[in-house]
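In this supplementary section we document a worked example of the pipeline. Step one takes a protein sequence of length 132 as its only input; no multiple sequence alignment statistics are reported here. Step two produces a three-dimensional model, which step three serialises into structure tokens for compact storage. The input and output of this example are shown verbatim.
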Amino acid sequence: MQLVADTSVLVAVVANEPERAALVRCTQGWELIAPHSVHWEVGNALCGLLRKQRITLAQAVQALRAYRSIPLRFVTVELEEALKIAHAQGLYAYDAYLLRCALKYQAPLLSLDSQLLEAARRLRVKIVQVKA
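The serialised model returned by step three reads:
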């Protein structure tokens, strides 16, 4: 079965955030999928951590190595459909790509982003809950 993993989940895992162990447990037995945009969002998130001086460049490079080891399959989503979702839900395109991915592939969503999860609930997207 497929599970849509968002950027918040991937970054929390590779940056060794406190939720890491629970997230790894949540993904056991699932095929992780994500829209192609997530790849670039991970880089952007790590740059943000660098700019805020929460991590060093060496830690960012190590996190990228860890990210590359995650068995994540990138899938295509239709921009027009994502745009409709973004407009209807008042979201950024990147969040809409994830929701379109979940809807298109009939896959639940795993995220730490409360706004994204709320939009997923409104769209009746299944959600995998993170259990500590």
